[in-house]
């Protein structure tokens, strides 16, 4: 896996993935930025949510669950000192569908948390308290 981060100006950077996709990262206006993109720490949080969501949806699809929507809401806390690392991250999955089995949703979230999500596991190994829960929305 490869990526490049290129400085644009001020504190704005363009991240380019090895798969050919780009994302703008920028800082807040009070730190020399123009607020035109996500912050780098927000990118980390989004990456964790994306990785875990991919796992949950994949597991539910393989178990033939009728998923119509899957959303991961993330909340994180950071240390007050520099470096302001994540100390806690909570992933809340909202899974929608008609006739979803709660046992299957619970299993998918648990497997993502304990076995498959590389990003969550990496944060956990670094001492970040990572928690997960879910809710099912019947359609």
Structural account:
InterPro entries: KH_dom-like_a/b, OsmC/Ohr_fam, OsmC/Ohrsf. This is OsmC family protein. With 139 residues, the protein is of the alpha+beta class. It folds into two domains: 1-38, N-terminal domain of TfIIb (Single Sheet), CATH 2.20.25; 40-138, K homology (KH) domain (GMP Synthetase, Chain A, domain 3), CATH 3.30.300.20. 33% of the residues lie in helices and 37% in strands. The strands form two sheets. The chain has a three-stranded antiparallel sheet with strand order 1-2-3, with no helix packed on it. Strands 4-5-6 form a three-stranded mixed sheet. Strand 4 and strand 5 form a beta hairpin. The longest helix is centred in the middle third of the chain and has 23 residues, at 40-62.
Topology:
Blueprint: E1 3-9, E2 12-17, E3 22-25, H1 40-62, E4 67-78, E5 86-97, H2 102-116, H3 118-125, E6 129-138
Parallel strand pairs: 5-6
Antiparallel strand pairs: 1-2, 2-3, 4-5
Helix pairs in contact: 1-2
């Amino acid at each position: 896996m490869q990526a490049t981060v290129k400085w644009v100006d001020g504190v704005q950077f363009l991240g380019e993935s090895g798969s050919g996709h780009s994302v703008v990262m920028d800082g807040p206006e009070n730190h020399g930025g123009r607020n035109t993109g996500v912050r780098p720490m927000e990118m980390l949080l989004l990456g964790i949510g994306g990785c875990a969501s991919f796992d949950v949806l994949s597991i539910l699809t393989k178990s033939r669950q009728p998923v119509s929507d899957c959303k991961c809401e993330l909340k994180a806390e950071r240390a007050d000192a520099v470096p302001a690392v994540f100390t806690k991250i909570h992933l809340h999955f909202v899974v929608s569908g008609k006739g979803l089995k709660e046992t299957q949703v619970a299993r998918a979230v648990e497997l993502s948390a304990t076995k498959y999500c590389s990003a969550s596991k990496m944060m956990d190994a670094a001492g970040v308290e990572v928690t997960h829960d879910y809710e099912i929305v019947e359609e």
